[in-house]
Design goal:
The complex is a heterodimer.
Chain A lengths: L7 H27 L5 H20 L3 H20 L6 H23 L9 H21 L2 H8 L3 H17 L25 E9 L6 H12 L5 E5 L8 H9 L1 E7 L3 H9 L4 E9 L21 E5 L6 H11 L6 H22 L10 H25 E3 L1 H18 L3 E6 L4 E3 H22 L3 H6 L6 E10 L2 E8 L6 H11 L11 H6 L10 H5 L7 H10 L3 E7 L3 E9 L4 E9 L2 E6 L3 E5 L6 E3 L5 E5 L2 E7 H4 L13 E7 L2 E7 L1 E9 L5 H4 L7 E6 L5 E5 L1 H9 L1
Parallel strand pairs in A: 7-9, 14-23, 18-20
Antiparallel strand pairs in A: 1-3, 1-4, 2-3, 4-5, 6-8, 9-10, 10-12, 11-12, 13-14, 13-21, 15-19, 16-17, 17-18, 19-20, 22-23
Helix pairs in contact in A: 1-2, 1-4, 2-3, 2-8, 3-4, 3-5, 4-5, 8-9, 12-13, 14-15, 15-20
Chain B lengths: L1 H14 L2 E7 L2 E6 L3 E6 L13 E7 L2 E7 H4 L12 E7 L2 E7 L1 E7 L5 E2 L13 E7 L2 E6 L1 H10 L2 H10 L1
Parallel strand pairs in B: 2-11, 5-7
Antiparallel strand pairs in B: 1-2, 1-8, 3-6, 4-5, 6-7, 9-10, 10-11
The chains are: A alpha+beta, B alpha+beta.
């Protein structure tokens, strides 16, 4: 069935639109929960979102999604129309968020092409219960319909609705409420038969919105629920692709009969996505007499009057929304990856041309002038490609609101989340890797870091704990800091734990505070019993650090007992192109990321110190650094084994520094990082190589992973 | 989608029973042509530390980095210096591209299925584990390689033993 008219791009569009809407929804519900008040705008927004999701899901035949959206829509319809005074905001958020979760799960199924089969029955019942309670609360306090009469100018609907509402309140049967969006198969009350209006609507879509016929079908699909008769042209909107063209040129015309007022129908049509222009007119029907003795009667004209309504009137929000969207296009990540690969190859090709060995020793002023210009443009292009891939962290950060909310509710702790620097941008590929660790850290902070309210008051802190999520740029890295003002880490407990598990590599007098805290990232600390036995951090922290390491970042901890903990994740801005220093050892070439290099120098034999185990060290400005000979580390044959003949490159990773000994420096260059073939990676147990890159002459240079090399020194 | 299948089918049909043969010392080996993507001359190989000795390193194949293994060393034959006859056969197996360094490439042969017999089981069978079958062409014999095993072997079984082997030699 679904295969008849749904194709890939439509499904993609559906997934994209719906997940965006859900995100928006989550955002507004969390915001309103925070202020403990649902604003009119929020209600309208949620209503609109649910309506759209319902419509598009029904169109895609995801009935369970549509029906859940329908019941949430009902709930918000009530809130919107009746503006109840006493809404339990937190309970309402719970319900809506639960609904959002359900929809998200279903959406994942859609993405994975699994059957979309979640059962929303229980949730729907909860919503119905809540709705009933809401009705009961608000109707007993005051007479709802009096206020409604003032706000609503719909005589027909009101007349019909009012007595029903009262009935409902006494009977509490949710199914019988005569809402707008009754499914067509529910029999309408016979009273409605007398009042039927005919309307003619012509819909014009925005230029270039594509798939006009499908969009028209959505309209018809939604109409089914509120009208009892309709005719539309062109008729074959689904089967015939040409109909899209017709709609584009002549508009989509629907003639329908309904008991809704002109305003209601107008509102209905204004919700259409990508609507450019709407012509809605009422046609007088032969048998129906729309004469009503209400004061607003003038609004429902008795002779056909053409009423063209400009879009701006009601749909201001949508206009601003769509114009904002037009300046942004969404691009498939795979295409961007490909683009970056190509630019990467161009960077190599540039080096191949400008550093061509054939040019060596030639006096080519004009050539070098042109080459410089070329190099400048390639550089700019490269920066631009990078910039395109950069995404602000704000979405990832804002997702954390939800976790903080859920966790603090569950653990009965009051926690505020503060976000700083959410506009900081990170490569798209990397952002995917931070979401999980971040979630983990926040959970940990709430669970183990922030104390219960009583404890906090006793420690003379504010009752509510604060978690600060901060992002900032630091050179070619981005720092993401998760800070809490909880109880901090207990050094003694960590140490004793490490002692038990034999994780200590240094004697306890030597170990610095920072090193103690970093112990919690060791896998040994992530075992289950830690949680109960020792109430610091450490639940799966090794997973966090592993995750961050896969994108070439690192994690560190700072903590003050009693005052809180800060966990800093240092991640590179981008993975793909780095500045590198090429060095030579024998016939092999290696590349050291420029960021890690502190200096390079020629050693003097007199500065070299050897300990009894023949470990070599060098004294530089009063400090002693271990020496790593690349040729022995990698078993490379080279002529230069005398330390004074080669060159030292001092590299640094966090606090550890060491000197790498190589034959000579070849020069600095932007390099494109390529992963080692999978087959090769299979052999490697500890990765001392960060990948490889192509040099200007087409040969391969291996990129040294400084972090692993300094770790070798530590051992 | 349908096109792709059709194409695949056609390709497979024209490649059926065709083998690329290459020499390794005195023996001639065959490799199913469907695995072969290209043949390139020997070129500078970048050594990667800490690999078994038969994995010579990586080469740059027009921007793509592929590992190369020396088939001689893989079969525990003595190493022979590379010459201008030495070739790298690039094969594609299970989405892994890999280069096989061989003494020289001979020709593409058609060996009908009924001319291929299973290899005799030798005691211990160590030398036969990479051989899928033995093809008879006129009076000569071609050993048909089992590419899957050539690669899979070290992925699955004792990685450590091959590693230590590499370090010693």
């Amino acid at each position: 069935m679904a295969g008849n008219y749904s194709n890939e791009s439509m499904l993609d569009l559906y997934i994209f639109e719906t997940s965006n809407l859900l995100e928006q929804l989550e955002h507004s519900i969390l915001a309103s929960e925070k202020s403990n008040h649902i604003s009119k705008d929020d209600v309208n927004e949620i209503f609109r979102i649910m309506h759209t999701i319902k419509g598009s899901s029904a169109m895609m035949l995801f009935d369970n999604i549509a029906s859940l959206a329908h019941s949430i829509e009902d709930l918000f319809y009530f809130i919107r129309e009746n503006d109840p005074r006493e809404v339990d905001c937190s309970a309402l958020s719970d319900i809506v968020l639960e609904g959002v979760d359900f929809l998200k799960v279903e959406l994942e199924k859609v993405k994975a092409k699994d059957p979309v089969d979640g059962d929303a029955q229980r949730l729907k019942e909860t919503i119905a219960d809540f709705l009933n309670k809401l009705k009961l609360q608000n109707s007993s306090a005051e007479k709802v319909f009096t206020s409604r009469k003032e706000t609503k100018k719909n005589s027909v609907e009101d007349l019909k609705d009012m007595p029903e509402d009262i009935e409902e309140i006494t009977e509490k049967i949710p199914e019988e409420k005569p809402r707008y969006y009754i499914a067509p198969n529910i029999t309408e009350p016979p009273a409605a038969l007398s009042k039927k209006n005919w309307y003619k609507a012509v819909i014009f879509y925005q230029d270039g919105c594509e798939m006009e016929n499908i969009r028209a079908y959505t309209v018809i699909h939604n109409l089914k629920e509120i009208v009892d008769k309709y005719i539309f042209t062109p008729e074959d909107i689904i089967e015939n692709d040409l109909s899209a063209q017709v709609i584009k040129e002549q508009g989509f015309t629907v003639v329908l009969r309904t008991d809704k007022s002109y305003e209601e129908m107008h509102e209905f049509f204004m919700q259409t996505i990508f609507l450019r222009e709407l012509k809605l007119e009422q046609i007088e029907d032969q048998e129906d007499e729309p004469v009503m003795n209400q004061h607003e009667n003038a609004l429902t004209p008795q002779i056909p009057v053409l009423q063209t309504v400009e879009r701006e009137e009601k749909a201001e929000k949508e206009v601003s929304l769509s114009s904002a969207q037009q300046s942004i296009i969404s691009v498939n990540v795979a295409k961007l990856d490909r683009l970056m690969d190509l630019v990467g190859e161009m960077v190599i090709a540039e080096a191949m041309v400008t550093q061509n060995p054939d040019l060596k020793g030639l006096q080519l002023d004009n050539f070098y002038k042109a080459a410089r210009q070329f190099g400048k443009i390639t550089g700019e292009l490269q920066d631009m490609v990078m910039a395109i891939r950069m995404v602000p962290l704000s979405t990832t950060f804002h997702k954390m609101h939800r976790i903080v909310r859920d966790m603090s509710k569950k653990l009965n702790k009051e926690v505020r989340l503060e976000i700083i620097g959410e506009e900081t941008e990170v490569d798209k590929n990397i952002i995917e890797h931070i979401s999980d660790p971040l979630m983990h850290l926040i959970r940990n902070a709430i669970d183990h870091g922030i104390e219960a309210a009583g404890e906090r008051v006793a420690a003379e802190k504010s009752k509510a704990g604060t978690i600060t999520l901060e992002a900032k740029n630091a050179g070619s890295d981005v720092l993401i800091i998760v800070r809490d003002d909880g109880k901090g880490l207990n050094k003694e407990k960590i140490l004793s734990r490490a002692r038990q598990n034999g994780l200590l590599t240094k004697s306890e007098q030597e170990i610095s505070d920072r090193e103690i805290f970093n112990l919690i990232f060791l896998p040994g600390f992530s075992t289950k019993e830690n949680i109960t036995e020792f109430s610091g951090r450490g639940v799966g922290m090794d997973v966090v650090s592993k995750n961050i390491q896969t994108v070439g970042g690192s994690v560190s901890v700072d903590s003050t007992e009693g005052a809180g903990t800060a966990i800093t994740m240092k991640i590179p801005l981008t993975l793909a192109i780095i500045g590198g220093m090429n060095i030579k050892v024998g016939n092999s070439r290696y590349t050291i990321p420029t960021i890690s290099i502190r200096e390079s120098f020629r050693p003097k034999e007199s500065d070299i110190i050897r300990d009894p185990d023949e470990n070599e060290m060098i004294m530089v400005r009063g400090e002693c650094y271990p020496v790593i000979r690349l040729h022995t580390l990698y078993k490379v044959k080279t002529e230069i084994t005398e330390l004074s003949q080669g060159i030292f490159i001092m590299v640094e990773d966090e606090e550890t520094s060491c000197c790498i000994f190589a034959d000579e420096l070849l020069g600095e260059q932007q390099v494109v990082v390529k992963a080692l073939p999978y087959y090769i990676q299979n052999f490697k147990k500890d990765n001392v190589l960060g990948g490889c890159t192509l040099l200007g002459d087409g040969s391969i240079s291996l990129i040294l992973d400084i972090q692993s090399i300094t770790r070798l020194v530590k051992k | 989608m349908a096109e792709m299948i059709a194409e695949d089918y056609l390709e497979e049909d024209t490649q059926k029973n065709k083998f690329l043969t290459f020499s390794l010392g005195n023996e001639i080996y065959g490799i199913e042509i469907k695995y072969v993507t290209e043949i390139i001359g020997i070129q500078p190989v970048t050594e990667v530390p800490e690999l078994p000795n038969y994995v010579r390193g990586i080469v740059n194949l027009r921007g793509k980095i592929i590992p190369v293994i020396d088939v001689r060393l893989r079969f525990k034959k003595p190493f022979m210096e590379y010459s201008d006859r030495t070739c790298i056969i690039v094969i594609d197996i299970q989405e892994i591209s890999i280069g096989l360094i061989v003494d020289s490439v001979c020709e593409v042969l058609v060996i009908p299925e009924d001319e291929i017999v299973p290899p005799p089981s030798v005691n211990g069978g160590a030398s036969n584990k990479y051989i899928k079958g033995i093809g008879k062409v006129d009076n000569s014999i071609k050993l048909i390689l089992d590419c899957d095993k050539l690669l899979k072997e070290e992925e699955l079984s004792n990685l450590t033993s091959t590693l230590s082997e590499g370090v010693i030699s």
